[in-house]
């Protein structure tokens, strides 16, 4: 099973979408193995978004992501990274496929509600930034056999 890092960004928290968003992933069958709220320190935000350093939107992106609390989570499941990315939709909410989280709730690329790792390698890196190993829980769900054959 694969793990991915997701977070409801400050706009998602402020707009009261946390429950709605977590609920979508739960109903899909992804398993929550880590969950917390935090206000991201600036340095942590710069590390997390390190690949975008130097781009014109980097400053505003770090300002936004540190401006108010986020809800961080680790979800586990078969192909969890790509499944979650599909459910999120494209980076620009106006280009995201109908029904996806970003298409349903977002209007602007700089306020796109949710973050999700883009590869298993990024997932490992990002989980390591936001969670200590002991904050992730190993457990099995009674419903497992009704989600996977
Ligand atoms: P994603 O969040 O879909 O993985 P990304 O990693 O390319 O997208 O960029 C990280 C975030 O930076 C993205 O969620 C929103 C912001 N961003 C990306 N490209 C942008 C752009 N051209 N203008 C403004 N913000 C942008
Ligand atoms: Mg990305």
Automatic annotation (TrEMBL):
<feature type="domain" description="Nucleoside diphosphate kinase-like">
    <location>
        <begin position="1"/>
        <end position="138"/>
    </location>
</feature>
<feature type="binding site">
    <location>
        <position position="85"/>
    </location>
    <ligand>
        <name>ATP</name>
    </ligand>
</feature>
<keyword id="KW-0963">Cytoplasm</keyword>
<comment type="function">
    <text>(Microbial infection) Catalyzes the phosphorylation of dZDP to dZTP, when the bacterium is infected by a phage that produces the substrate for the synthesis of dZTP (2- amino-2'-deoxyadenosine 5'-triphosphate), which is then used by the phage as a DNA polymerase substrate.</text>
</comment>
<dbReference type="GO" id="GO:0006241">
    <property type="term" value="P:CTP biosynthetic process"/>
</dbReference>
<dbReference type="InterPro" id="IPR023005">
    <property type="entry name" value="Nucleoside_diP_kinase_AS"/>
</dbReference>
<comment type="subunit">
    <text>Homotetramer.</text>
</comment>
<dbReference type="GO" id="GO:0005737">
    <property type="term" value="C:cytoplasm"/>
</dbReference>
<keyword id="KW-0808">Transferase</keyword>
<comment type="similarity">
    <text>Belongs to the NDK family.</text>
</comment>
<dbReference type="InterPro" id="IPR034907">
    <property type="entry name" value="NDK-like_dom"/>
</dbReference>
<dbReference type="GO" id="GO:0006228">
    <property type="term" value="P:UTP biosynthetic process"/>
</dbReference>
<feature type="binding site">
    <location>
        <position position="112"/>
    </location>
    <ligand>
        <name>ATP</name>
    </ligand>
</feature>
<protein>
    <recommendedName>
        <fullName>Nucleoside diphosphate kinase</fullName>
        <ecNumber>2.7.4.6</ecNumber>
    </recommendedName>
</protein>
<keyword id="KW-0546">Nucleotide metabolism</keyword>
<feature type="binding site">
    <location>
        <position position="102"/>
    </location>
    <ligand>
        <name>ATP</name>
    </ligand>
</feature>
<keyword id="KW-0547">Nucleotide-binding</keyword>
<keyword id="KW-0479">Metal-binding</keyword>
<keyword id="KW-0067">ATP-binding</keyword>
<dbReference type="InterPro" id="IPR001564">
    <property type="entry name" value="Nucleoside_diP_kinase"/>
</dbReference>
<keyword id="KW-0460">Magnesium</keyword>
<dbReference type="Pfam" id="PF00334">
    <property type="entry name" value="NDK"/>
</dbReference>
<dbReference type="GO" id="GO:0005524">
    <property type="term" value="F:ATP binding"/>
</dbReference>
<comment type="function">
    <text>Major role in the synthesis of nucleoside triphosphates other than ATP. The ATP gamma phosphate is transferred to the NDP beta phosphate via a ping-pong mechanism, using a phosphorylated active-site intermediate.</text>
</comment>
<feature type="active site" description="Pros-phosphohistidine intermediate">
    <location>
        <position position="115"/>
    </location>
</feature>
<keyword id="KW-0597">Phosphoprotein</keyword>
<keyword id="KW-0418">Kinase</keyword>
<dbReference type="InterPro" id="IPR036850">
    <property type="entry name" value="NDK-like_dom_sf"/>
</dbReference>
<dbReference type="GO" id="GO:0046872">
    <property type="term" value="F:metal ion binding"/>
</dbReference>
<dbReference type="GO" id="GO:0006183">
    <property type="term" value="P:GTP biosynthetic process"/>
</dbReference>
<feature type="binding site">
    <location>
        <position position="91"/>
    </location>
    <ligand>
        <name>ATP</name>
    </ligand>
</feature>
<feature type="binding site">
    <location>
        <position position="57"/>
    </location>
    <ligand>
        <name>ATP</name>
    </ligand>
</feature>
<dbReference type="GO" id="GO:0004550">
    <property type="term" value="F:nucleoside diphosphate kinase activity"/>
</dbReference>
<feature type="binding site">
    <location>
        <position position="9"/>
    </location>
    <ligand>
        <name>ATP</name>
    </ligand>
</feature>
């Amino acid at each position: 099973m694969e793990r991915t890092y997701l977070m409801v960004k400050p706009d998602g928290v402020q707009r009261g979408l946390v429950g709605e968003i977590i609920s979508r992933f739960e109903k899909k069958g992804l398993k929550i193995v880590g969950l917390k709220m935090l206000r991201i320190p600036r340095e942590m935000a710069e590390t997390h978004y390190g690949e975008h350093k130097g781009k014109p939107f980097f400053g505003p992106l770090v300002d936004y992501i540190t401006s108010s609390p986020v809800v961080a989570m680790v979800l586990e499941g078969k192909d969890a990274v790509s499944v979650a990315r599909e459910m999120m939709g494209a980076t620009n909410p106006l280009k995201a496929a109908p029904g996806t989280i970003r298409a349903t709730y977002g209007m602007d690329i700089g306020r796109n509600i949710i973050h999700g790792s883009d590869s298993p390698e990024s997932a490992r890196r990002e989980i390591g930034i936001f969670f200590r190993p002991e904050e992730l829980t190993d457990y099995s769900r009674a419903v497992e056999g009704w989600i996977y054959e």
